[in-house]
């Protein structure tokens, strides 16, 4: 589904990611861990097409990421960024309906008028349906995090990229969310690549874990072997 080869890159010619290679299969739940500043978010930005690498290659479904248009990529990849910048005057339902995709030119909305049924379904699954008409600025940080996740899921992506999805969430909701994600990978073949801070939590849910250290792969294995 996704193949990354000898990826090196960062911001204004400073290497943050160094010679990183790995592949992720369809339906896999793949975790990325590492200390603050080790390059986890930077790596995810490259995979999502927001940030171009200096060298190396990223292929999705056998084709280089560069050969996809932004619109085509938006149909395949949905992203939950670490720090989301939402227009707070939108309601929850509007936010989920709009869809959103990030690429090198910034964020853009993918399509509006999305199927009502899907919008309600993901709002139920992420526990935000009861806030449907609330404005984003009326929600708590954790509630907003769930709206961002609903928005990503409403795109019905094949690959879901999550940057610390359990941030701001209380423990019971973290488990619900990860149980749901695990279910979707099994039932629909959704591929999930997610950054975590908590090794124990990641180990419970991920098929494989990649540990980053100062931009390089320190280890990559199934959770009980990391
Ligand atoms: P955290 O666990 O804190 O989220 P991280 O592993 O996600 O950390 P990154 O955000 O990828 O780390 O940052 C890696 C390095 O890149 C850091 O040294 C950071 O200062 C630098 N960096 C991140 N974003 C930018 C940017 N927009 N411009 C320049 N440097 C950046
Ligand atoms: Mg980060």
Automatic annotation (TrEMBL):
Q: Which residues form the ABC transporter domain?
A: 2-226
Q: Which domain of life is it from?
A: Bacteria
Protein name as catalogued: Iron ABC transporter ATPase
In the record, what lineage is assigned to the organism producing the protein? Bacteria, Bacillati, Bacillota, Bacilli, Bacillales
* Residues included from the entire protein: 1 to 226 of 489
């Amino acid at each position: 589904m996704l193949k990354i080869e000898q990826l090196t890159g960062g911001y204004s010619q400073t290497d943050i990611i160094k010679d990183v290679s790995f592949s992720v299969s369809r339906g896999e739940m793949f975790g990325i861990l590492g200390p603050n500043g080790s390059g986890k978010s930077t790596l995810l930005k490259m995979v999502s097409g927001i940030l171009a690498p200096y060298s190396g290659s990223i292929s999705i479904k056998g084709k280089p990421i560069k050969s996809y248009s932004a619109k085509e990529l938006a149909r395949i990849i949905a992203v939950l960024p670490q720090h989301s910048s939402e227009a707070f005057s939108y309601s929850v339902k509007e936010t989920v309906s709009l869809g959103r995709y990030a690429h090198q030119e910034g964020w853009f909305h993918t399509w509006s008028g999305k199927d009502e049924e899907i919008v309600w379904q993901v709002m139920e699954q992420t526990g935000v349906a009861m806030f449907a008409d609330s404005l984003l600025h009326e929600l708590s940080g954790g509630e907003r995090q769930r709206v961002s996740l609903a928005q990503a899921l409403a795109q019905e992506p094949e690959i879901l990229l999550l940057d610390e999805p359990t941030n701001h969430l209380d423990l019971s909701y973290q488990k619900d969310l990860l149980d749901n994600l695990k279910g979707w990978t099994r039932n629909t073949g959704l591929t999930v690549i997610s950054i975590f801070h908590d090794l124990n939590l990641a180990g419970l849910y991920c098929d494989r874990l990649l540990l980053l250290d100062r931009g390089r792969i320190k280890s990559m294995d199934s959770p009980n072997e990391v």
